Amino acid sequence: MNIKKLLSPSESTLSRLNSILPQIEEFSEELRDLSDEQLKLKTRYFQKRLELGEELGEMVPEALAVAREGAFRTHNLYAFRTQLLGALVLYEGNFAEMKTGEGKTLVVVLAAYILALQKKGLHVVTVNEYLVKRDAEFCRKTLNFLGLTVGFNTAKLPKHLKKEMFRCDVTYTTNSELAFDFLRDNMASTTKEVVLPPLNYAIIDEGDSVLIDEAGTPLIISKTTDVSFKEYIEVDQAVKQLDELDFRVD
What we know:
This is SecA DEAD-like domain-containing protein. GO terms for molecular function: ATP binding. The chain is an alpha/beta fold. The chain is built from twelve helices and four strands. A four-stranded parallel β-sheet has the order 2-3-1-4, with helices on both faces. Strand 2, helix 9 (159-166) and strand 3 form a beta-alpha-beta unit. Helix 4 runs antiparallel to helix 5 (60-75), helix 6 crosses helix 7 and helix 7 packs across helix 8. The N and C termini lie far apart (66 Å). The mean pLDDT is 90.
């Protein structure tokens, strides 16, 4: 017995995920004979099962096979076993390290399809707006084909368009703009000014850059106010005139 493998969490995780691959391959074989319309109906089929109380984890092998077939029909890219493993790792909320050229963009699409079936919103976070637009367009082609919506969030989008983008099943955004939207929402005077929906799940592209390199950069936001300093002075003067009969200390 290899003690190193036994004690390594990543080794045991990969071993477990590898055991799922034969199920995905079986479903993939069945899906090849479906028409485009029949393949699209699979998305609604999964969502109906979720509505009836079934756990998402129970349909992951078949859902991943559907995403794989959808990517093949829209991009002529058929996911390899390594890419399927990467998608499973992301679905479970773990880090997946992939070398350049191993198809990371496709892996994100596969994982995004599974998670977006819940209709609770999914953010794909990356480091710059070029990647946001490029990868969102790549993902949109496949997920639109399968009946899901994809949007992207950038700094120059007006507030009403940001709301529309965040209502999509999957939204691509930079880490900085997502953080600034969060800060602006917390400064909002009314709920109508809030753009972010309830936060559910995020896939982080370039995790080392987002979570380590840029995490130390402070994000500062300010807001103008209509309140003049005169009002602060008046309140200060009024408070100083109070005596013990005017208030009670808890």
